[in-house]
Amino acid sequence: MSTATTDTTPTDTTPTAVSARAAQGPRARSAVLRSEFRLFRREPGALFGVLVFPPGLLAILGSVPAFRDTDPDLGGLRLIDAYVPVTVLLPMIVAGLQAMPPVLAGYRERGILRRMSTTPVRPSALLGAQMGINGAAAFCSALISLAVGRLAFDVTLPRQAVGYLLALVLTVVVALSLGALVSARARTSKIANAIGSAVFFPSMFCAGVWLPVQSMPTTLADIVQCTPFGAAAQALSQAAAGDWPAWSHLGVLAAWAVVLTGAAARWFRWE
């Protein structure tokens, strides 16, 4: 009798238990997403860096009279026109290198990811929530920068909207994959901050924060355009002017997206 009773008791691999876990999975992932969103809203550094800093920088630059004058070196564009794509890229760089890596590395450091592996929701749900929240925040900031440029400084909205959106999507994938790679290699949140900061400033330079890519010497511009954010800056500028982004720039973005995503998946550890 005792043997029969034991044999009829559902185990972890019975259809009943599997169905229960499947039912709990979507609810658990939704709970993780809501929790991570609340934590993101309470983080002033991330909110400022992703949502406030890029449009604020555009507003400050646009208030300088010289930035509103046409520049022959930019093909008759104004400096403020050239800086809108830059401020569109900035929140993606901040989200990928400053906001996300310390959080994920901190979760691993404190054993949160390891403990999640024993629950119905896998640790990948936490990674997905972080990437989704930071990516959405970066997109919102990009839209705010476009609105500030248009309403405050009469910057023309992107004339090639499809090409502009494609370049934005590829850039977000690259930025978040780069952040996931930093998170994969950093054992602690402090190390993640250090690595993120070391990559952050070269990325800003390549995006054209200090000097638009169009104004760089030819040799330097050719080198910068081989980097993901240099290629993104050029692709966004071309789409903003009404041209389809050069396939070379889109190809650079796609190649970096594949390489960084593969490297992050290869080296990412939950423990």
TrEMBL record:
Pfam families: ABC2_membrane_3. Residues 45-271 form the ABC transmembrane type-2 domain. Keywords: Antibiotic resistance, Membrane, Transmembrane, Transmembrane helix. The keyword Ribosomal protein does not apply. It is found in: Membrane. The chain crosses the membrane at residues 44-62, 82-104, 125-149, 161-184, 191-211, 246-268. It is a multi-pass membrane protein. The keyword Lipid metabolism does not apply. PROSITE patterns: ABC_TM2. InterPro entries: ABC-2_transporter (IPR052902), ABC2_TM (IPR013525), ABC2_TM_bact-type (IPR047817), ABC_2_transport (IPR000412). Residues 1-25 are annotated as: Disordered. Residues 1-17 have a biased composition (Low complexity). Its main location: membrane. This is ABC transporter permease. It comes from Streptomyces beihaiensis.
